[in-house]
Amino acid sequence: QRQLVESGGGLVQAGGSLRLSCAASGRAFSSDRMGWFRQAPGKEREFVAAIRRSTGLTYYADSVKDRFTISRDITKNTVYLQMNSLKPEDTAVYYCAAESGRWDIWGQGTQVTVSS
Questions:
Q1: What is the Cα–Cα distance from 15 to 116, expressed in whole angstroms?
Q2: Which of 14, 17, 26, 83 is 20 to 30 A removed from 92 (C-alpha atoms)?
Q3: CB atoms near residue 26 (< 10 Å)
Q4: What secondary structure letter does DSSP report for 31?
Q5: 50: number of CA atoms within 13 Å, CB side?
Q6: In Å, how far are 19, 74, 98, 99 from 67, measured between CA atoms?
């Protein structure tokens, strides 16, 4: 049973918006932080954003700061990534992950494609 299930990816034009969702269960539900990473073709996976489950404190990569917003709904065990002002360089597979000391629980990924 997958502990993290992502949804919300798709194709969007540059300047558009998408919202990704990640539903958590099992051990992922009680993790310290949940976050989003992305991997573009031919590139390494990189950190995008994270949120601390207990306090809501957020962390962002410089490349997405002021464009992306991570949030959580504890009642739904779900984390969201609102992505605005999307750019072609945001094209990647986006992965949800959970961390309690290390990022060791991962979702299956969802494709985000931004056309120019």
A1: 9
A2: 26
A3: 14
A4: -
A5: 19
A6: 12, 23, 22, 23
Evaluate whether 81 touches 74 at the Cβ level (below 8 Å): no
Residue in 92, 81, 106 with CA at minimum distance from that of residue 38: 92
Mean pLDDT by 10 residues, the chain (116 residues): 91 98 89 96 97 95 97 93 98 96 95 97
pLDDT at 27: 85
The letter for the amino acid at 101 is G
What is the 3 state secondary structure string of 37-74? Answer: EEECCCCCCEEEEEEECCCCCEEECCCCCCCEEEEEEH
Q: Could you give the CA distance from residue 8 to residue 104 in angstroms, rounded to a whole number?
A: 22
